[in-house]
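Appendix B.2, paired examples.
Example (i):
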Amino acid sequence: MARLCVVWVKSGIGYNRIQRRTLKALGLHRLNQSVVHNDCASVRGMINRVKHLVRVEVEGS
C-alpha cells in the first residue's frame, strides 16, 4: 500500500473553521510539519479539502 507524506506549507489563518480542523485531523500542528498516512479514500478526501495549504508526496509501496 502506498503512503502519503503530507507537509503543511501555508497557514490556515483566514480560512474557515472546517479547513483548520481538517489540518488538525490530519495530525498537523505547526507549519512545515510533515506526517505520513496510508493512501485511503478518507485521507484523500481530507487532503483534497485543504490542498491549497499542504503539499503531498507519495512514498514507495
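Example (ii):
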Amino acid sequence: MYSRLRDLREDRDMKQRELAAYLNCSQQVYSNYELGQRDIPTDILIKLSALYGVSVDYILGITNNPVQNK
C-alpha cells in the first residue's frame, strides 16, 4: 500500500532499522507501515515528509508530485 515509503527509503540507502530508530519505533512497526499492515500516525507522516522533502500527499499516493506546497 505504501510502496513509496520503501522507494524513498531505498533511494537514500537507509535500512528499516535506521529509519525506525529515527522515528523512535521498532523495525517491525516500521515494516508494517511499508507493507500497509498498519496505519501511519500523523506525527510519523510529518517526520517522513520532512526527512524526504516530499509532501504527505505524495507519501500517501494521493498525488504523483513529490513537491511540498509551502
